[in-house]
Amino acid sequence: MKTIYLNKDSKCTKPCVATIGFFDGVHRGHQYLIARLIEKARQEGLEATVITFDKHPREVLHADYQPLLLNTFEEKELLLSKTGIDNCAVLPFSVEMAGYSARDFMQKVLKERLQVRILYIGYDNRFGHNREETFDDYVRYGKEMGITVVRNDEFKAESTESENTCPPKISSSQIRKYLLNGDAEMAEQCLGYPYFLWGTVVNGVQKGRELGFPTANIAVNDPRKLIPAPGVYAVNACLKTETMLRPSMMNIGRRPTFGDNALSLEVHILDYSSNLYGQQLAVGFVRRMREEHRFDSEQELAAQLQSDAREVRDLFSTPDNDK
Known about the structure:
323 residues, alpha/beta, six-stranded antiparallel beta barrel, elongated
């Protein structure tokens, strides 16, 4: 995949089939749309291009807006590259661009700078100033410009008897709600992969080591990255320098047993004792095992951690959870 950063002077030189959106999470609905786009591009002998933005549009339009993102830009770029598209065109979102009507955007950006021949629109996607125009307007403008506009079918997840089946309609906002409620399994069903975050291992207070559970304290690389609800999770941990997934348990919370107030993210990698300070560590969320709560003594907490570790081992010893 080629990433193209578009400024006022740059443009794509090859005609393409394209779609546009922020694509936070690159979830199963996004993947379905992109797969259709790629199929059409191959049929037409054109390149397949995803058009996205360098920042969340609401960050530009509302200075006090603090987005909770499923992906950093680098993570989104990686996930998009795995879909098989040819190009990721990155638009620098600005107040000026936000003022474009749909017609202006199609003419100035899609036609003149990106050479879009066929535009795939998500079934519920709208663009242009205040999102005032409709799909029929897009089709009419497209005919005038030589752009065929196609509305993609809605992705509908297959229903099963499992209680962890995602809803028929998948959205980034719904996935955020699942994670903020600690439902990592439902988030994974909707995303098509375990929700993950990257961070740098930093010094902590080392209370876990005193209890027999040394932890890697993670400082998340991007403050906009969504942190799931507090609790103890079964996770897979992976160092940036490795490809091995290591079964782990993770606590997200404020360590109420010790009277702390600051939110901490602590990972205990099972059967691992090497020094991790300063290294980049990724964790993929598998399941929330329990909520965080205060224990009456450190001994009671240590006993609970022993129980948590056994439960995590049992979970990862099950073939279906060998992720």
